[in-house]
Each structure stands twice: as structure tokens, then as C-alpha cells.
Design brief:
The structure is a single chain. The chain is built from eleven helices and no strands. Helix 3 crosses helix 10. It is an all-alpha fold.
């Protein structure tokens, strides 16, 4: 029996190691080759350099083979403009979707009304719907209403499905909160607003922070839906990178991807710090 358990744990350990290698090795390869100084073939290591990081911010004249007739990153201004658009969209979308998702999760958990199950299913539907279908649907909707495509349509489109993600995360947190605490607060004379602020909100904060960070990261990363509902002057960072990749994967793209990975890690660490601080 012990031998079987030992073999089982060994198999599970090997599977887990293989899974994480499969998951994170491509990211390691991207980071590794982002420091390769080879301008012709990024898969052949010729030396260590920071030039690709400097070039995407216009601080170096070195360009890859594709950019021999001009900078591969068309201009630093275009890159920064795309990054600025992504940050505007992600920040605004996070604020709106977190408010909608949190309020909906509280209402669904604390109130009983007709068609509650159907409403809950509709809240989760945008999460399960293919991105390309949602993108086409939003495009037809905006065109039918005569709305000019731009940052506003991207924000509206992102809110339609990111509210669902926040709703799921906050709902899971709501399920672990004892309603008796709110009842005790009311018995002690607190009104609904004081109960929400002093009792419910502190307990919900880990879920709210987690949902907000998830919404921010997904919004920053979204390409498919954004591609359909973005205007000509509202290019986001994923769209900018996609336009670069269509001409070949070069070191500049690896450098940009590495910076995105680093930013994601920083956001995750901030979320864990806030979560642990609230829990304590």
C-alpha cells in the first residue's frame, strides 16, 4: 500500500513539475531572447544587450533586420500612445466593472426575487461567450446606433464581460461571509450604510481587490474584442504588438513582452500584499 502511495505521489510530483515547465518555459524563452544582441536571428545567441529595451523607448539607434530601413518600433510616440490608451481603458473599465460586479454580487446574495437564477445565468453568459462572437455583436450594435468607434466603445465593450469576472470573484467571497454579522450590526442600531461600510465591505475587500486586479489585467491583455470595436485613433498596446508580430517576431517584441510580464508580476504582488494586509 505504501509503495502504491509512493508511486502515486511521485507521479503527481512529476506531472506538476512538467506542467509548470510547459506553462512557464515559453515566458522564460521570451525573457532570455529579449537580451540577445543578434539583429538577424533572435534564436542564435550572440551576446547580451539592453539595446532592445532602450530602442522601444527611443533611447537607442539599434534596430533589427526588419527595421533596417527604419525603426522596427515605428516610433516611441506610437508605442507610448498605445500604452496610454490601454491604461485609460483598463483603469476606467476596472472602476466601472468592479462597481457593477460587486453591487450585483451583494444583491444576488442578500435578496431573493423572481427570475434570480436566470439573471445570474445572464451575468455569467459574457464569460462563456467566444470573444469573436462578442466582438462582432458589439461592433454591429455600435454601428447600428451610429456610435463612433473609439476608446469609449472599447470601455463599454470591456465592461460587458469584465463585470461578470468581478461578479464571480466577489460572489465566491460573499458565500463565505456569515449574514449573522450584518444582522448583529442592525440589532446594535447601525443603519444599512454603516453596516455595509463597517461590517460587509472590510470582509469583501479581498474579493473586490482580486476581481479588480483580474479585470485590469484582462482589459490590458484583450485583443480580439478590442480589435472589432476600436477606432483608427484608439490603438491599444495588444493591437500595437499584434501589428508588429505580423511582420515577424523580433527582439523588440520580446522586450515589450518582458516588460508586460514584469508589470503583471508587480500587479499580482500588490494584490497579494493588499489582500494579506486586509486579512490581518
Amino acid at each position: 500500500m505504501k509503495a502504491r502511495l509512493g508511486i502515486g505521489w511521485l507521479s503527481l510530483t512529476l506531472f506538476s513539475v512538467a506542467f509548470f515547465i510547459f506553462l512557464y518555459l515559453p515566458l522564460g524563452v521570451i525573457i532570455y531572447y529579449s537580451f540577445n544582441s543578434n539583429t538577424l536571428d533572435m534564436t542564435v545567441w550572440t551576446g547580451f544587450t539592453f539595446d532592445w529595451y532602450l530602442s522601444i523607448f527611443g533611447l537607442s539607434d539599434k534596430t533589427s533586420a526588419i527595421g533596417s530601413s527604419g525603426a522596427y518600433v515605428e516610433s516611441t510616440d506610437q508605442l507610448l500612445a498605445a500604452l496610454r490608451n490601454s491604461l485609460i481603458v483598463a483603469t476606467t473599465t476596472t472602476l466601472i466593472s468592479t462597481t457593477i460586479g460587486t453591487a450585483t454580487a451583494i444583491a444576488m446574495a442578500r435578496y431573493r426575487f423572481r427570475l434570480r437564477g436566470a439573471y445570474q445565468g445572464l451575468m455569467m453568459l459574457p464569460m462563456m461567450m467566444p470573444d469573436i462572437v462578442l466582438g462582432i455583436g458589439l461592433l454591429i450594435f455600435f454601428v447600428t446606433l451610429g456610435v463612433n468607434l473609439g476608446l469609449m466603445t472599447i470601455i463599454i465593450g470591456h465592461c460587458t464581460f469584465l463585470s461578470s469576472y468581478v461578479f464571480i470573484v466577489v460572489s465566491a467571497r460573499m458565500a463565505s461571509i456569515d449574514p449573522a454579522l450584518e444582522e448583529a450590526s442592525a440589532d446594535l442600531g447601525a443603519n444599512e450604510w454603516v453596516t455595509f461600510k463597517k461590517v460587509l465591505l472590510p470582509q469583501l475587500m479581498p474579493g473586490i481587490v482580486g476581481g479588480a486586479l483580474l479585470a485590469f489585467i484582462i482589459s490590458m491583455d484583450d485583443l480580439v474584442i478590442t480589435y472589432f470595436i476600436a477606432g483608427t485613433d484608439s490603438t491599444t498596446l495588444p493591437m500595437f504588438i499584434f501589428s508588429m508580430v505580423r511582420r515577424g517576431v523580433k527582439p523588440e517584441i520580446n522586450a515589450i513582452a518582458t516588460l508586460i510580464i514584469l508589470a503583471s508580476l508587480v500587479i499580482a504582488m500588490i494584490g497579494l500584499y493588499l489582500r494579506n494586509r486586509r486579512v490581518e
